[in-house]
Amino acid sequence: MNLKRMASQSSKSAFQISIFYLLLGMVWIYFSDMSIGFLTNDSHQILLWQTYKGFFFIGVTALLLYLFSNKILQDRYDEYERHIAEQKKAQSKLAQQDALLKTIINSSPDAIFVKDVEGKFLLFNNGAGDIVGVSPEKVIHNSDALLFSPETVQQIQEQERLIISQGKIVSFEERLTTANGIKKVFWVTKGPLFSDEGKLFGLFGIARDITAMKHNEQSIMDEKERYDYMAHHDPLTGLPNRLSLIEMLKEKSTQTPIVPFALIFLDLDEFKEINDSFGHRFGDQLLILFTKQLQNLFPKDTSIIRTGGDEFVILIESKIDHHSLQIQMIRLIKILNDPFNIDQIEVYITASIGISLFPEDSSNYEELLQKADAAMYKAKYSGRNTYNFYNSGLTQEVLERTTLASNLKKAISNRDLILHYQPQINPLSGEIIGAEALLRWSTPEGMIPPSIFIPIAEERGLIVELGAFVLEEGFRMATQWVKNGMLKGRIAINISTKQLIHPNFLLLLEELLYKTHCDPTWIEIEITESSILEYPERMIALLGVIKGKGFKISIDDFGTGYSSLSYLKNLPADTLKIDISFIRDITHHSKNQTIVRAIIALAKGLGMTTVAEGVETVEELDFLRENSIDSIQGYYYHKPMSIESFGQLIRET
Question: CA 329, CA 213: separation in Å to the nearest integer?
């Protein structure tokens, strides 16, 4: 109940009491005077009784007035007390709500603020202070000029004038610069403030600092772009990869109108031998230099793709003809006539190139790739270092390749393959102390080099079967030479990675040892350094089992890979074979000398022996002798030879 209402009720009650008193007095005077008149006619008595009557009336009315007044005042007082209590309670609740509101506003990490019509801050919470680095107390009654750069202040003022003119609440992203030069990004909600009468008295705002979120979003976008780039590009050369090629071909083969293009499939000839001879790092540098040659040769809008290893695809999109393509291919082959110089080593490479045309040869991109690949193999079989356009007769070439694989399988089954042996020599005494078994395939049409049939064996899944043949023949020969007293040292047999990790490899060893009566101590299992790197922990465990059976373990092409010494120290190896790339012209390359000395010292420190491959000159031999090499293998002493020639050599020594 409010005070106005209380005053109204009090006035009403006073009026009621007055009326009651008036009526009571009039009734009392009338009836009391009549009663006195009946009792006496004596004027003196009448005056005396009237005096007593007046005193009585005054006493009674005073008592009644007291009782009425006390009751009314007590009720009013009680009501007033209740009003005061309710008012205090309301004020306390209002204070609690105000404190709660302030706590909520100041606990929010978002900036919450209110400005008057002149742009002065009326409210500025702690969150806003934390964001701009200014105490809220300093901001109140100040403008944005205290917090932001002049350019930002102008930007804010223009935005707020627009918001007020529109008369509605809006949300938007805002980039601001603080007075101390820090750039921030906010998600802002702003709106005008109107009184009940509709008069503008200010503007409110809520701003969330999303600078970190925007930075994270940008980082995610950058990472997405980076991963997308990695997924579509070759990490070595930076060229688009096979995935990019497929996407390009899908797009080009389905676009309308049809735009003809040439698909050029290029394969570097015998690149594996370069890797094996000089190491993968050398090969990587060669690929990078070759990529630059391609980019310099072809127009800027030409798509050059590295599909993997030593294979490249070039897409030339224009109205092309055979003659213009022939000119470009001749220029490419001519460029390859010059050597690449890497680490002061000159190396020559050639390329086999196949060309298919869209839509002339096919409108299907998969068939187009297959036909370019067939044309490339035609160029390779034509002697390499040349190019070839696809024609329908190339399906015969593919058939011939399939036939070669079939003949290889028959040769394995019929045992038409043979092993040659290259002696390993003690450099001090010149005596034969071992030999390496090397596979050869002789056909009525001539000798097929391992560089041709080994890749086919790997491609067609024949490498495990081929490796089993080599192991069995090597075991048989070791047994035979022991019986004849001709075995000197051990026979080293190369094992491919696919064969070594085959689940039945250990069982195969046991079967062949039993079948040939070979003692494992007569055999040295030779694996390449790169094969260890593919499955290091698995290889260490597997080689440990093989060594436990009595075989010796040799690491071939050592130094050309990227092996870690932490793996090497755990390898159960007996011999390190120094790659030919470090031996060739060793007397003229100080770096090679340092590497070879380091390998020999490393091997001796780990309790291993060393074999140098590819020794061809007396200068190379002298250097290796001086540095305590254990064994020499190379043309300086002997080329790989047939079983008969090797037996004759043993008998003569």
Answer: 53
Single-letter amino acid code for the residue at 628:
S
The amino acid sitting at 416 is D
- The pTM of the full predicted model, rounded to 2 decimals, is 0.45
Secondary structure (DSSP) of 281-305:
HHHHHHHHHHHHHHHHHS-TT-EEE
- In this structure, which amino acid lies at residue 521? T
Place of tokens 């003659």: 323
- Residue 29: CB partners within 8 Å, gap ≥ 6? 57
What is the per-residue pLDDT across 57-114, written as a single tens digit (0 to 9) for each? 777 777 777 777 777 777 777 777 787 878 778 777 777 776 666 767 777 788 889 9
Give me 473's structure tokens. 């023949």
- Within its chain, how far is the Cα of 604 from the centroid? 42
Segments in 174-267 forming alpha helices (H): 211-232, 242-254
**What single letter denotes the amino acid at residue 632?**
I
Q: Look up residue 212 and give its two tokens.
A: 């970190």
Which structure tokens are listed for 624? Answer: 């290796």
Q: What tens digit of pLDDT does each residue of 561-607 get?
A: 555 566 777 889 999 999 888 898 788 888 889 999 999 999 999 99
Closest among 167, 170, 124, 168 to 147, alpha carbons compared: 124
Element (H, E) at 434: strand 432-443
318: DSSP letter:
S
Residue 338 — left, alpha, or beta (φ > 0 → left; ψ -120 to 50 → alpha)?
beta
Do 491 and 521 contact (CB within 8 A), yes or no? no
Buried b (16+ CB within 10 A) or exposed e, 449-486: eeebbbebbeebebbbebbbbbbbbbbbbbbebeeeee
List residues bridging with 494 in a β-sheet.
526
Kindly tell me the number of DSSP H helices and DSSP E strands found in the chain: 23, 21
- Report the C-alpha gap between 361 and 67 in whole angstroms: 124
The label of the residue with tokens 């070879």 reads 596
CA-based nearest residue to 467, from 511, 508, 510, 434: 508
- Provide the phi-psi class of 489: left if phi over 0, else alpha when psi is between -120 and 50, else beta: left
